[in-house]
Design brief:
Layout lengths: L1 H25 L3 E7 L18 H9 L1 E3 L2 E2 L5 H10 L27 H6 L4 E7 L17 E5 L21 H5 L3 E5 L2 E6 L2 H5 L1 H15 L5 E6 L21 H22 L6 E7 L26 H4 L3 E4 L8 E3 L3 E2 L3 H9 L14 H4 L9 E6 L3 E7 L2 E4 L3 E4 L15 E4 L3 E4 L15 H18 E2 L4 E2 L10
Parallel strand pairs: 1-8, 1-9, 2-11, 3-12, 4-5, 4-8
Antiparallel strand pairs: 2-10, 5-6, 6-7, 9-10, 13-14, 14-15, 15-18, 16-17, 19-20
Length: about 475
Amino acid sequence: LSIDIMKYFIYIFFLILFSCSDNNKNTTPNFVIIFMDDLGYGDISNFGAINYNTPNINNMVNRGMLFTNFYSAQAVCSASRAGLLTGTYPNRIGISGALMPYSEHGLHEDEKTIAEILKEKGYSTGIFGKWHLGHQEKFLPTNHGFDTYLGIPYSNDMWPVDFKGEQISDTSNWRKKSYPQLPLIKDEKIVREIKTLNDQAELTTIFTEKSVDFINENKDNPFFLYVPHPMPHVPIAVSEKFLGKSEQGLYGDLMMEIDWSVGRIINALEQNNIIDNTLIIFTSDNGPWLNFGNHAGSTGGLREGKGTSFEGGQRVPTVMMWPDVIPAGKIANQLSSSIDILPTISHIVDGNLPKHKIDGINIMEILKGEKVNPRKEFYYYYGNNNLEAVRKDNWKLILPHTSRSYKGVLPNNDGFPGNYNSITTGLELYNLRRDPGEEYDVIKKYPNIAKELEELAEKARSDMGDNLTGRKGINNRNHGKL
């Protein structure tokens, strides 16, 4: 009898031991951010994309939450990435536009990134793709909280290659003078030069497979995986496995390859039994670069595109999936932004937010499916700290400014850019619930609403400044760059 009792207690001991081990394995959530480049609001099936299939992104929507009023931090490359990783309007921290290979500044060491918050909580952190927050060693990802990095330091069109995809030999050509060969960097070292479109065609696969390896290597401990794909920013290029597979030409082929990448990452999470406790975020840095025609995406009917503060420039397709938390098949119509991701992740892990001011808001209640509106307002800054618009609820006030425009000029095709137009706005009011295309200025009908939004604009100017009106913000830590 005593032997049987002893066996029983041994059995119970090991049962509890293995149970605790299993529980510990998945109690801390993982985070995956898939960040597209120049992907338009209309480029996923749920917002009207046609002539190519994206079953893996569709699957994310069916199993997760589709955001219909989600905004990038600013409608251009470097600024939007700074906003995502720091939870802050990029103009507040001295990042504007797109940093160049000859730029001498980058993301300041005093800024705290998502990766740094998670490193403090014991996370493994990896980035595979486009960085674009400073190419000098002190600005690279490994100095901003990432354990490992493989990617290109800036946009994939910043290379001495013409629009035909051929290396430029003329030393007087501005691209040849301004741009070195496009480097592929591992941590802090250049491991390869990207010289041809065939080289670029490999990038989506390279970054996807490295992401899968990272998941497999870190399946037993919490991790943060950041996958900022260089495309569909031009020049676009596709591997042989997807070339010619869509009915929309090269752009459709590329979207199919991006979808494949999403599927590979999700499959790796499923194979390692960690999908349920992983928050996956799929979004874009800004809207499409419309003057590239058939090599550009779609705004889904929103006004203008990349490089503007109109809806087509800054409202981006966004899907979040977290089976343990996010109810399946939900639509989030609430106003939210990429700057909200950092405080939300910090809340989830009980992390330490930066001591300085950030602009993001914790949207965890939205992820749980609750009908709340934590973000009441949003500021559309562009360029060198120019406040161009303000949104509150469904109302958007356009402030007087000059903007690039894609209207009135034809785009070009096959990798060649068309011209821009230029427009100057007045003080204009739009009801985005009824008019997301910003076609009907209703400021004369609703002067009181316009006045309320003007007061919000003054609040932003006092806080962050506004170069359009010559204001200096009291809380702008732009590190001397704007």
